[in-house]
């Protein structure tokens, strides 16, 4: 990407900031006194890359308040014990919200990697008539009820689904609401049902709902239907007379302009913006469905990053690249800074120059306790060439410290804090989890085998290969 183009993107991004307007979220929740509230958003609706937007502390009197700037409608969410609360926010708006009654996860729920949050819309105490959240919440109740009662008819017996009748009821119910975002949300939710119940040809659905229409990157209904269509869409494109040529260009990954031209001819879509988002969605889903290799996806993603003039698509391409490369062997391990048992801050970079056997445990787990005993023996053997670092996710770290002392564990134990986001960074969904990090801070085994799975043998092979490589490099420097 040339310097002028980078400069132009910076100017455009600054321009977006200039048009951003303030949003304030406030409320009173004495039950949550002393806790920090974190509000998140998805930076795109394909990879569902979750990022923190803002946070605030609930004061002793229960009050909380946070402000931030946005230039378009955004969907935010917050995790509160067993609840996941949702809130759509609009620029230049203030939301006084009511948090759900405090209900913490039980121990079994915290250890369950498949725990599903109870999803709720956060109640707005100062909402005007036909407020966006209220309308979407009402619509979703109608929608969920219809799907529950007609799922079999929609997917298997289409003639019995009668989506036109449901659409008529919805349009009548929400006739007075003209909010553009809500109308788009409603229309694409209804289109999703129509796709399965009536028109299953993705080419025709695209032509009706997407071609020559605005691109709605932040509308979840628009993007959900798009995601459903894309894999089928390109599959149909490959079956056209130009399909082989299209597939070959995609697999070569060296000419994004020809690829878009061929896709346009095969599908009759003229919008360059829509063609790009179809490619991005298809490449992403194709990688996880094993339709395309990582190399194919990365080659085409890099071309879109290099030549796209759409900021949202450049960001999306970067997110896809990050997702499929994240935590791969050879990539940098996510950094961290946590307190040890003495209250001292410890960083991953503190261990640079030695291998790090990083693990995440909870002392509530029998499997973790068993592994810790194996780690104790392994540590005595390997402590000269490797650092052992255990991150404890226990709620009461004081009790964990007693457990450590009682069992005479001598390696580094760190206290996990929710604000560090470390479990998310290392994709920890169950315990224990292991990673081996090399002396340069890169992942050597991601995830690593456990002490029960011949770790010692695998580690010796990796360490020996690293030492030999270092000797070769040293020999070349001396030549």
Key terms for this structure?
479 residues; alpha+beta; Immunoglobulin-like; Glutaredoxin; 3 domains; 7-stranded mixed β-sheet; 5-stranded mixed β-sheet
Briefly say what this structure is:
With 479 residues, the chain is α+β, with helices and mostly antiparallel strands. Helix content is 47%, strand content 19%. It is globular, with a radius of gyration of 26 Å.
Please give a structural write-up.
With 479 residues, the protein is α+β, with helices and mostly antiparallel strands. It has three domains: 3-127, Immunoglobulin-like (Sandwich); 134-325, no CATH class; 337-478, Glutaredoxin (3-Layer(aba) Sandwich). Helix content is 47%, strand content 19%. Strands 11-10-14-13-12-15-16 form a seven-stranded mixed beta sheet. It has a five-stranded mixed beta sheet with strand order 3-2-5-6-8. Strands 4-1-7-9 form a four-stranded mixed beta sheet. A hairpin with a 5-residue loop joins strand 15 (433-437) and strand 16. The two termini are 37 Å apart. Mean pLDDT is 88; it is low at 1-7.
């Amino acid at each position: 990407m040339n310097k002028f183009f980078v400069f132009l993107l910076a100017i455009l991004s600054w321009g977006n900031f200039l048009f951003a307007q303030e949003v304030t979220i406030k409320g009173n929740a004495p039950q949550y006194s002393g806790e920090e509230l974190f509000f998140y958003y998805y930076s795109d609706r394909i990879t569902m890359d979750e990022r923190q937007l803002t946070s605030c502390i609930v004061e002793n009197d229960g009050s909380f308040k946070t402000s931030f700037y946005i230039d378009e409608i955004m969907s935010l969410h917050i995790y509160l014990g067993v609840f996941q609360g949702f809130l759509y926010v609009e620029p230049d708006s203030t939301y006084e919200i009511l948090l759900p009654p405090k209900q913490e996860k039980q121990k079994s729920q915290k250890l369950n990697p498949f725990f599903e949050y109870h999803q709720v819309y956060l109640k707005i105490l100062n909402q005007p008539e036909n407020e966006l959240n209220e309308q979407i919440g009402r619509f979703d109740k109608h929608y969920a009820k219809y799907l529950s009662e007609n799922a079999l008819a929609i997917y298997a017996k289409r003639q019995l689904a009668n989506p036109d009748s449901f659409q008529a009821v919805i349009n009548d119910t929400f006739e007075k609401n003209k909010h553009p975002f809500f109308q788009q949300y409603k229309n694409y939710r209804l289109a999703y049902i129509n796709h399965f119940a009536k028109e299953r040809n993705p080419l025709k659905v695209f032509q009706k709902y997407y071609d020559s229409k605005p691109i709605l990157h932040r509308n979840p209904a628009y993007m959900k239907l798009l995601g459903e269509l894309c894999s089928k869409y390109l599959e149909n494109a490959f079956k056209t007379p130009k399909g082989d040529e299209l597939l070959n260009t995609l697999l070569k990954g060296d000419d994004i302009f020809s690829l878009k031209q061929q896709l346009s001819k095969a599908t009759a879509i003229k919008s360059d913006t829509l063609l790009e988002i179809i490619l991005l969605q298809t490449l992403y889903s194709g990688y996880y469905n094993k339709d395309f290799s990582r190399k194919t996806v990365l080659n085409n993603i890099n071309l879109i990053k290099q030549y796209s003039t759409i900021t949202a698509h450049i960001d999306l391409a970067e997110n896809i690249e990050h997702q499929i490369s994240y935590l791969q062997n050879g990539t940098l391990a996510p950094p961290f800074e946590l307190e040890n048992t003495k209250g001292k801050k410890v960083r991953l970079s503190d261990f640079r120059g030695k291998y790090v056997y990083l693990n995440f445990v909870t002392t509530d787990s029998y499997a973790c306790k068993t592994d810790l005993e194996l780690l104790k023996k392994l540590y005595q053997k390997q402590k000269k060439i490797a650092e052992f670092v255990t991150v404890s996710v226990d709620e009461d770290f004081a009790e964990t410290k007693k457990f450590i002392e009682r069992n005479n564990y001598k390696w580094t134990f760190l206290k996990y804090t929710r604000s560090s986001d470390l479990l998310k960074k290392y994709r920890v969904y169950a315990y224990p989890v292991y990673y081996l990090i090399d002396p340069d801070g890169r992942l050597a085994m991601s995830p690593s085998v456990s002490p029960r799975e011949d770790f010692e043998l695998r580690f010796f092979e990796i360490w020996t290969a690293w030492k030999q490589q270092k000797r070769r490099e040293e020999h070349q420097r001396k030549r």
